[in-house]
Amino acid sequence: MIPFRRVLVPLSLATLALLAAGTGAALAQSPAPASASASASAPVAPAHPYLTLTQLRSLYRDGQSRFATIGGLSIHYKDEGPRGAPVLLMVHGSESSLRTWDRIAARLKGRYRIVRFDLPGYGLSQGTTDEAARTMVPTDLPIGLLKQLGVTHVTFVGVSSGGTMGMYLAARRPDLVDRLVLSNTPSDPVDTSHLVMPQGFLDAQARAKATGFRDQDFWNQFLSFFAGDPARISPQTRREYYDFYRRVPEKNLIALIARIGDGKQATIEMAKVTVPTFLIWGTGDPLLPESALNAITRYLANARISKVMMPDVGHYPPLEVPDRFAQLLAAYLEAGVPDPARRP
């Protein structure tokens, strides 16, 4: 696994490529530290208001926060809802956290057991160590967590690269994944050449490149650009993005993010997926529009596909329209494919 460092200096569309986690490249890298120490934080310029993991946990952990050790890493997760209820495993994408699912979990945890976790280096989870980067693959994380929780069947719900992890998990462990729910998930190497960004976002990227720091305005521009309606992204969410991504830089930030890469192995893995799959797509997404929905439908040729398109929604449907997302998800689980054992 190639070591990557948190993108402090976005080069052109580097941040957008990381968001999709489909290219695995285009990242500004710094020299690796001489020490292969347990967690891998790069030197920090004192002029920038970085937050340590300890500070972030102090600010954002709550009564539902739990921590599990998986592959030697301290992983933050939440496990809510009735113990005997069907389990929904929700995984966020890159440049995100388990808070992506807050509103959806609140709506559905009365009748589902909802498990969600922060990927290593994101949210309140420890960053990926050099050893973990060498010895683990992304799907080890959900497998390890579910094993500790005693969970043997899930409906996997993922957005962006979180959905990529779901496809790989369904291919690797079809006994574990009963259904897939994917939202704006890449299936081809991500192309950003078509994106036309507003001047404010271009200025924010240029400023980040010059200063080595992504300020609040950067994240406001980022979230607005990828939303179908920027007004749906609350001030609280915008502040949380700023806080979580002024975390002390991590050496191996995307080492355990599921990626499409050059697409060759991903195509093989997607063909292995046979579980019922629901695609909830914001076709107002400038990065992965309707053509990307059509592409992933082709690649998942052996799955039973259902899909819903929302033309007014952008790249993060669970964040932008959580109530609609929860309603669609429940309808699929309870009426669309209520018996996942009945596969083609």
The largest sheet, given as strand count, sense and whether it forms a barrel, is: 8 strands, mixed
* Coarse structural class: alpha/beta
Q: What helical percentage do the residues reach?
A: 25-40%
Strand arrangement, largest sheet? 1-2-4-3-5-6-7-8
- How many alpha or pi helices? 13
Q: How would you spell out the order of helices and strands? A: HHEEEHEHHEHEHHHHEHEHH
Query: Approximately how much beta-strand content do the residues carry?
Result: 5-15%
Global Rg: 19 Å
Looking at the structure, what is the overall shape?
Answer: globular
Mean pLDDT: 88
Separation of termini?
A: 36 Å
Overall strand count: 8
Low-confidence parts: 1-15, 17-46
Description of the structure:
- The protein is an alpha/beta fold and 344 residues long.
- It has helices at 14-20, 53-60, 102-108, 130-135, 140-149, 161-172, 199-211, 216-226, 235-244, 264-271, 290-299, 317-320, 322-336, and strands at 66-70, 73-80, 87-91, 113-117, 154-159, 177-183, 277-282, 305-310.
- The protein has an eight-stranded mixed β-sheet, sandwiched between helices.
- Strand 5 (154-159), helix 6 and strand 6 (177-183) form a beta-alpha-beta unit.
- Helix 6 packs across helix 10 and helix 8 packs across helix 9.
- The longest helix is centred in the last third of the chain and has 15 residues, at 322-336.
- The protein starts with 13 loop residues before the first helix and ends in an 8-residue tail after the last helix.
- The model is unreliable at 1-15 and 17-46 (pLDDT under 50).
